[in-house]
Amino acid sequence: MNASHLVLGIESSCDDTSVAVLEDGRTLRAHLVAAQDLHKLYGGIVPELAARAHLELLPRMVAAALEEAGVAADRLTAIAVTHAPGLVGSLVVGVASAKAYGLALGIPVIGVNHIEGHLLATTLEHGETPWPAVSLIVSGGHTELVEMRGVGDYRWLGSTRDDAAGEAYDKVAKLLGLGFPGGPVIDRLAASGDATAFDFPRPMLDQPGLDFSFSGLKTAVALAVASHGTPPYPERLVADVAASFQRAVVDTLTAKSLRAIEQTGARALLLGGGVACNGELRRRLAEACTRAGVTLRIPSPRFCADNAAMIALVGALRLDRGAAPDPELDAIASLEATGLSAS
Ligand code: KG4
Ligand code: ZN
């Protein structure tokens, strides 16, 4: 890693606004994440509100991050910004801000793929990855299994055919009357429930291949609670549904991750995305990886969820490899359109 990088990272692809200052690709001089709690009022993310909130938050957060880092803006050497994939209005705010800072400071702006940020986020705390590795990215927008043979050398193994894992958590929480986001509350309630109370499907587990599908599971939960009317439901029922649903999700994610490791001969399993904060998933993958003799790397919750540190890191790695700034840098909504995934 070139020791002279001082990269400002900007992440605004969904509902979290985040800014980081990363020195020499290793030392995080400042890292701010602002979760936009206003979406809780609407039971989900409202794209226009998310974009407006980024617009309000970003200039203040950039100023605060530079102050926390003790870095004058004119000492920055580059800006790394998430330009894909995500909510397009949110991405546009980040990309336009990054271009403006880049122009004002006369430094390059590097567009970073958000998913590559999640793929490499473990590096921030754990250092160099034992290659080859398999990465499981599970968030509100993505469920991706990726073979990684080095930085920039990725092969897509599987994705979700419908809902993402986090989306399933959010929809099931809504069905149970638990509010948004659903992951943390289901994770907590599942601990006191009986995971064998309901026999929910393990989607696509009996089929070859590494794709996922979670919408049938959500429908199974809807059918299970249908005879109980509308929320609020009895505490016991909610805890048992939460535990049984979570067991089905974790069984599926664990089995497919192990299958991916077997198929690729990976030496490490890397985890990323908000669902990687899930206690049961972390425990089960830890047991499975110990048994398989594979290194498991899970970032701290702050680096699992959307964050600008991982974006600054990818920017620094790209600069090291001689990446040239793209004057046409644009916001791109879909992962497929970026050419990074296989589908
Ligand atoms: O990566 P992230 O912060 O944002 C994106 O979606 O990009 O992930 C948010 C998702 C939400 O669907 C949320 O319900 C889920 O991660 N989540 C969890 C947990 N914490 C957050 N899912 C399961 N267990 C958790 N502890
Ligand atoms: Zn994400």
Write a compact overview of the structure shown.
The chain is an alpha/beta fold and 343 residues long. Helices cover 43% and strands 19% of the residues. It has 12 helices and 10 strands.
Structure, explained:
The model has no long low-confidence stretch (mean pLDDT 95). With 343 residues, the chain is an alpha/beta fold. It has helices at residues 47-69, 88-105, 114-120, 123-126, 165-175, 182-190, 215-226, 235-264, 279-292, 301-304, 308-320, 335-338, and strands at residues 6-11, 16-23, 27-35, 78-84, 109-113, 133-138, 143-150, 153-159, 268-272, 295-297. The strands form two sheets. A five-stranded mixed β-sheet has the order 3-2-1-4-5, with helices on both faces. 43% of the residues lie in helices and 19% in strands. Helix 5 runs parallel beside helix 7 (215-226).
Output the keywords.
binds 5'-O-[(R)-(carboxyoxy)(hydroxy)phosphoryl]adenosine; globular; binds zinc ion; five-stranded mixed β-sheet; 343 residues; 12 helices; alpha/beta
Mean pLDDT: 95
Q: Tally the helices.
A: 12
The low-pLDDT segments are none
For the largest sheet, list the strands in their spatial order: 3-2-1-4-5
As an assembly, this protein is single chain
Q: Give the tally of β-strands.
A: 10
- SS content category: alpha/beta
Shape: globular
Order of helices and strands: EEEHEHEHHEEEHHHHEHEHHH
As a whole number of angstroms, the C-alpha radius of gyration is: 20 Å
Strand content: 15-25%
Bound molecules: 5'-O-[(R)-(carboxyoxy)(hydroxy)phosphoryl]adenosine, zinc ion
Major beta sheet summary: 5 strands, mixed
- What is the distance, rounded to the nearest whole angstrom, between the alpha carbons of the first and last residues? 32 Å
Question: Can you give the helix content as a percent range?
Answer: 40-55%
